[in-house]
Amino acid sequence: MRINKYIAHAGVTSRRKAETYIKEGLVTVNGQVVTKLATNVKAGDLVEIKGQPIYNEEKVYYLLNKPRGVISTVSDDKGRKTVLDLLPNVKERIYPVGRLDWDTSGVLILTNDGDFTDQMIHPRNEIDKVYLARVKGLANKENLRPLTRGVLIDDKKTKPAHYRILKVDTVKNRSVIELTIHEGRNHQVKKMLEAVGLLVDKLSRIRFGTIDLKGLGSGESRRLSKKEIGQLYNAAAHKKNEKNSN
After folding, report:
1. Is there a single domain that holds both residue 216 and residue 199?
2. Where are the beta strands (DSSP E) in 154-231?
3. Is Heme found in the keyword set (predicted)?
4. Whole-prediction pTM
5. Which of 16, 66, 91, 156 is 20 to 30 A removed from 73 (C-alpha atoms)?
6. Same domain flag for 110 and 216
7. Number of domains in the chain
């Protein structure tokens, strides 16, 4: 098995992140640093990342209703609360599938399955990420229309998004918008809405693919069922097949 795939299967990180570790010389096999992605690992080999041995473990998948004020990392050198602090009884080495900002709440999946992570976050699979945004300003079709064509953020155009205006409060000068995107760029929703003149003051992800927060309070979590995992894989495969047929 190739080294990057072995690392992903061990639940340490995604395959793409594993490739970064390898290129940076952070991976050893039987005590020897490996930097070639084509390196193969066989049964009995000792694989370490940053001096820590890794082993295969049961694949697990959790859904978390992430609260605001919690960061989407496995550790923090500043001592801030992380999403793993909310799942203290999970023995496997799980990590977030993508990220939510510190002040963004909602759907976050955590797993130790690197291949699953790659399928969920790769832009080509266009997994729906649905957000509920409260913004300062009055939303209307005219100012939101550019989102459906893509807007320029960080010198790169976004993919077309879908929106629904749920509420407009002319007295308080604010609106509530549902926005569906298919990417996962840094602060993307906030920057997209800012690009059309609307500043986000509260943001939550309410759906990821086929998964929503039904039955989960803030900070609560549960394991995903085999059916739910299959539905997520099917959603990714559907988009891929749809593109290939066009």
Report:
1. no
2. 156-157, 162-169, 174-181, 199-208, 211-212, 221-223
3. no
4. 0.80
5. 156
6. yes
7. 3
